[in-house]
Design brief:
Layout lengths: L1 H40 L18 E7 L4 E8 L11 E6 L13 H10 L3 E5 L18 H15 L4 E7 L1 H10 L5 E7 L5 H7 L1 H5 L6 H11 L11 H4 L7 E5 L10 H9 L3 E4 L9 H4 L1 H16 L14
Parallel strand pairs: 3-4, 3-5, 5-6, 6-7, 7-8
Antiparallel strand pairs: 1-2, 2-4
Helix pairs in contact: 1-7, 3-4
């Protein structure tokens, strides 16, 4: 009897230990997913420590109201003084990357804004939700940021009367620009620097890079994160799904460094191959959204020629454009 009892007792201990171990693993898994999901949707907010007047640019402090979810966005309207006579006004809207803001990026965004202003473009620079001076609301890496960008387009169109608009985005802002650009008639061209093609696929493939955890955990973590954070719709952020819908009169220009360690340049190649109406430039170095920093003059010239082609400006001569290099 004692032997039978001892065996039964040991079996119950093993079952109990196993069950508790499984519960602990599940709890750790869910807790880790919650922590990662929270950190992803609440990146550290960087300060604004520059203003356009530091670059000799006049500007207006603006507030953009997102009617979709009542978020107020902060930004600058930088009017150009060089609008050519008998030509329509044109504007370029900047869309910054994840974790950055209108000025805090790995390159000098106000320097680029100055060049565009000198060439006759109004420039709108703003902070996405949960960034810079805009209202706090969970970051969604493109899902709700698309409505932020559409609100900025509406501001340029209805508040400033500018109907010819280009979007210029970097990383998250690049993907968001592709998604928003197809939905707006005012947008004539989109420049996407270092975009991802499909957030769900990219998240799985880059999971280890961003978290340090094994790649096989990616699907489980992202599934739990989407369930626990309803605004985080990873599976619905797919620039590649709309790239081919761009009509011939609306341009797409992809820029992606071959040395990008955060988002592989193959993502822009996929977008380019999926679009019937796009151009691609892959600088040989630069890192993630650092091509402008390393190839400033060439970057500006390629961007300006691309914009010229779609805004039908008169001064498009003497700007050679090269595709894949």
């Amino acid at each position: 009897m004692n032997l039978v009892f001892r065996k039964s007792f040991n079996f119950k201990r093993i079952v109990t230990f196993t069950a508790l171990s499984i519960l602990l693993i599940i709890s750790l898994f869910i807790s880790s997913a919650i922590l990662i999901g929270y950190k992803v949707t609440n990146p550290m907010i960087k300060d604004i420590d520059q203003v356009p007047t530091d670059y000799g640019l006049e500007y207006e402090e603006i507030k953009i109201y997102n009617v979709m979810d009542n978020i107020t966005l902060s930004g600058w309207w930088i009017p150009t003084k060089n609008t050519p006579i008998l030509q329509n006004e044109k504007a370029v809207i900047f869309a910054h990357g994840y974790g950055y803001n209108r000025t805090k990026m790995p390159f000098d965004s106000l320097e680029l804004a100055k060049r565009l202003s000198n060439e006759g473009y109004h420039v709108l620079m703003f902070d996405f939700r949960n960034s810079g001076l805009s209202e706090k609301s969970p970051t969604t890496i493109g899902y709700k940021e698309k409505t932020d960008l559409l609100s900025a387009i509406n501001f340029s169109s209805y508040e400033k009367g500018v109907k010819n608009i280009a979007l210029m985005g970097w990383s998250m802002g690049a993907a968001t620009s592709i998604l928003a650009g197809i939905e707006s008639e005012e947008v004539k061209a989109v420049i996407a620097d270092s975009a991802f093609a499909d957030l769900a696929t990219y998240t799985r493939e880059s999971f280890s890079y961003w978290t340090g955890l094994p790649e096989f955990l990616a699907v489980g973590f992202t599934t739990i994160a989407e369930y626990l954070f309803p605004e985080f719709k990873i599976s619905e952020v797919k620039p590649i799904a709309v790239a081919d819908d761009y009509p011939p009169g609306k341009g797409l220009f992809f820029i992606h460094s071959k040395k990008d360690g955060a988002i592989p340049y193959s993502q822009s190649q996929l977008l380019h191959e999926s679009s019937q109406n796009s151009e691609l430039w892959m600088p040989p170095k630069g890192g993630h959204i650092r091509s402008y920093k390393h190839f400033k003059e060439e970057y500006e010239e390629k961007v300006l020629l691309f914009l010229d082609n779609y805004f039908l400006r008169e001064n498009i001569v003497d700007r050679p454009f090269y595709l894949i290099s």
